[in-house]
Amino acid sequence: MEVKRKYRKLKCASQAEILRSYQRDDDFVKCLREKVIDLLQIVGRQTGTLPFVQSDVPFKLIYFFFTSGMGNQTLGEEYTGIVQADLEARKVPSLFARLVSVILECFGEKVLLKILKRLQLSINHPHSELTPTAVAFLNTFISNLCNLIPVFILIHKGLFYMFGRYYSIGKRLTGIDYAKVYGHRPTDSISWGLRLLGVATLTQCILKIWQNNNNGNYNYKYVALEEKHTICQLCLEKEPTTTTPCGHLFCWSCLTDWLNSKPQCPLCREYVMSSRIVYVLNL
Q: Locate the RING-type domain: which residues (predicted)?
């Protein structure tokens, strides 16, 4: 009964507190990754573990396992005085919900895109029994869906900036919110600066959808003929072998190195995830 009374008094944390919490956690994960890379360089074992250390995901899983997974606050949550809570049910989220939320945040978009790619491969398989019309329709639908998933995630973030609830889709699906429990309590009004950022984010999403409709769907199997015999626009030496979703060609090593430091197309500055670049054969 005492626990129930306590959660009735809890209020939802502000967007600024949630953002600061995530930023502090991200900083710690990056610092942890850098320390591991330095350690591997000292012992001379970096080569065999390169795929492991190139991504922040393994370090995020380790970090959140020992914090949220064990029922503890993360460093960011402790710094801002917030805790994970199911405000609707007025209770602490279950361990299962916390773990599912972390897994969705780390792998949700990548897994969904990988499933869609595998589905597209099966549709285009030579032994597929689908009619050419059905194959063309499904290819267009899946390609458009792959393009809309990052936009949908951006829309969700814009709604968070405006209304202050559920920073990630994983948190929304598992019903996990944040409650302010100690420290200076901000005013109940939503920050107009973040609300303006939310409007700008939603406007950006609308423009992206409009741009995608004007440019047509991105089909990775086709590359502009005029780009076939060009050289990589980054190193100006090698023949381009890899395409971005926006259709620009580079060599694989140059493009992956670029995206590891900046997730944008080197030419048009379109947002590009490293998992969405495609190695194109027979250029």
A: 232-269
